[in-house]
Write a structure and sequence with these properties.
Layout (H helix, E strand, L loop, with lengths): L10 E5 L1 H4 L4 E7 L9 E4 L2 E5 L7 H17 L1 H19 L2 H6 L2 H9 L5 H4 L18
Parallel strand pairs: 2-4
Antiparallel strand pairs: 1-2, 3-4
Helix pairs in contact: 2-3, 2-5
C-alpha cells in the first residue's frame, strides 16, 4: 500500500469540481501523524489530512470530506467543531460505544449517506445535516 503513495507529493491539491461541482480546491496533506490509526482522513479547518501508510484517497472519501467542509461553512468552523464534539459525546453515552457514537453524529450520517453522490453538494439544501440527527444508522461494512 505504501508504494502507491511514493510518487505523491506530501501536499496534493485535489480539484473538487470533478466530483462535487465546487470550483474550490481542497488541500490534502498525507501524514504519518494524522488522522489517528483506524481512520483514513480527517478534515481540519477545510484541510484534509490523510494517512500516508494507506492508499491515496479516492473520490468517495474526498466527496465525504467536501461535505464536511460545506457543513463547516454553514456553522462556522468553531460552531461546527463545538457541535461535532458535543454530539459525539452525547452519542457515545447513548450507544455506549465511541465508534458508534462517531458514526451516528449527524454530520457523519449525512456525509456517509451521500459520499457516493458526486452531485450532492450541487443540490444539497443549507443545514441539511439537521435531517440526519434522528434514527440510528447501521454500521457500514
Amino acid at each position: 500500500m505504501r508504494h502507491e503513495l511514493q510518487n505523491l507529493p506530501i501536499i496534493a491539491i485535489f480539484d473538487l469540481q470533478k466530483f462535487t461541482g465546487l470550483a474550490d480546491k481542497m488541500k490534502i496533506i498525507y501524514s504519518t501523524l494524522l488522522p489517528v490509526k483506524g481512520f483514513r482522513a480527517i478534515n481540519l479547518f477545510g484541510i484534509v489530512f490523510a494517512r500516508k501508510d494507506q492508499p491515496a484517497l479516492d473520490e468517495h472519501i474526498i466527496n465525504h470530506e467536501s461535505i464536511h467542509t460545506r457543513q463547516m461553512l454553514e456553522l462556522g468552523v468553531i460552531g461546527f467543531y463545538l457541535w461535532y464534539v458535543a454530539e459525539w459525546i452525547i452519542r457515545w453515552i447513548q450507544y455506549k460505544d465511541r465508534y458508534q457514537g462517531y458514526r451516528n453524529i449527524g454530520f457523519e450520517r449525512e456525509a456517509h449517506a451521500n459520499d457516493n453522490d458526486f452531485s450532492y453538494l450541487e443540490k444539497r439544501r443549507t443545514f441539511n445535516f439537521l435531517g440526519y440527527l434522528k434514527n440510528k444508522i447501521s454500521p457500514r461494512c
